[in-house]
Amino acid sequence: MKITVFGAGYVGLVTAACLAEMGNGVVCVDVDKDRIALLNAGGVPIHEPGLDGLLQRNVAAGRLEFTTDAAAAVAHATLVFIAVGTPPAEDGSADLAHVLAAATTVGRHMRDYKVVVDKSTVPVGTADRVHAAIAHELKARGTPLPYAVVSNPEFLKEGAAIDDFMRPDRIVLGCDDEQAGLLLRAVYAPFVRNRDRLLIMDVRSAELTKYAANAMLATRISFMNELALLAEALGADIEQVRHGIGSDPRIGTHFLYAGCGWGGSCFPKDVRALLRTGAEAGQPLSLLQSVLRINQRQRALLSDRVEARFGSDLRGHVFALWGLAFKPGTDDLREAPSLTVVDALLERGAQVVAFDPVAMPKAAALWRGREGFTLADTPLDAVRGASALLLLTEWREFRSPDFDALKAALREPVLFDGRNLWDPAQMRELGFEYHGIGRGART
Ligand code: NAD
């Protein structure tokens, strides 16, 4: 089948590459000329495990092309995925400018039947707006043409995106059009061969499902973060509590990790967008308001603790940061907790030296010229002479570092473990002053 994908970001690239891998002829179009030039030169603009090889293989096989030529891209296929960004607007709502621009482009260039698939995360009612944007263009051209708009939210996780797309837990299709439904069923059939995991529902329910999923996951983490503070106050250990509750299959083990707050390209913006949707619909979401508030407090926790330990004037102190990406497996820094921590430390006059296994190029671009912030070549280089080490991302390589070397390199052996990666008792035995999150056990 021929397929067009709008957007060559985390979702668009993975979607295009995985669809090509199944034998489809895919054209991926983006407005970012540099990004398309890089892709056409064999480069990959994002870090996503396995994506390099997949892109190379499918480009070489002639199944995958990148272009900025939107007219040609629209002409290429009946099936057009929209996987462009939906960043937060000032008021917290999802900014649909890119989605509607892509829809307008489709309307402007289409010459025959199209099935337009909203893969971007978009609020309830967006499919109607995409429909209207296309209708508007067709009317302006005076060419009535048939088309359908389908909602197909994406659930992939950065860092495991290829696997998630290839072996999805479920594929949600919001579809009111029989012909479009059949087409999408055919596209996704290879991904669900062993067990049908296609959930077909109405468009508005599909749109809401994506926000509901992210809001639920964010809620679980905020719940544990709030409980972590209580555990500390009571002398209990949130990690032991996590094991205790996670073994109940009704609760499950995922997304129960207390830490220095959630971030990334999806949770913060999607929670805020859902809050906005609730307010606009006259159904304020008070639980979700608390979820967001708890997270804001949590993101400030590490720097507040540094202040409590070293004083509010941090001039003369260097702090080492391990991990800048919002989670392991990605170079994505969007709304990462590290942004909050770096800002807070720099504002208090400290110097920050950071290391991240893959996010260094993006970090260099983000903090370029920021006084007091530097990047180190190795984890150990980052800690040399530092007053404390702050661990922000639980990359595997940070799990079992050479603690003796670490202690010797630090000016003071102080650890702020924002991901509860290390064992408090072991750290104390090794001579560290250890600060975890919710690790108040008095044993
Ligand atoms: P991204 O910022 O990495 O990529 C978006 C791309 O769209 C950019 O390359 C941009 O240049 C391009 N673009 C913008 N306007 C365009 C237009 N008119 N035509 C063609 N290309 C255009 O974004 P992302 O992380 O891939 O997210 C895309 C959408 O998917 C968002 O709605 C996001 O919420 C959702 N989503 C993201 C993830 C994730 O983990 N990143 C997971 C599930 C869903």
UniProtKB/TrEMBL annotation:
One Pfam entry name = UDPG_MGDP_dh_C
Could you list this entry's UniProt keywords, alphabetically sorted: NAD, Oxidoreductase
EC category: oxidoreductase
Which pathway?
A: Nucleotide-sugar biosynthesis; UDP-alpha-D-glucuronate biosynthesis; UDP-alpha-D-glucuronate from UDP-alpha-D-glucose: step 1/1
Residues of the UDP-glucose/GDP-mannose dehydrogenase C-terminal domain? 320-424
Q: What is its EC number?
A: 1.1.1.22
Residues in coiled coil? none
Which SMART domains would you find in this protein's record? UDPG_MGDP_dh_C
Q: Which domain of life is it from?
A: Bacteria
Catalytic activity of the protein: UDP-alpha-D-glucose + 2 NAD(+) + H2O = UDP-alpha-D-glucuronate + 2 NADH + 3 H(+)
What's this protein's family per the entry? Belongs to the UDP-glucose/GDP-mannose dehydrogenase family.
What is the name of this protein?
Answer: UDP-glucose 6-dehydrogenase
Organism whose genome encodes this protein: Pseudaquabacterium terrae
Taxonomic lineage per UniProt?
Answer: Bacteria, Pseudomonadati, Pseudomonadota, Betaproteobacteria, Burkholderiales
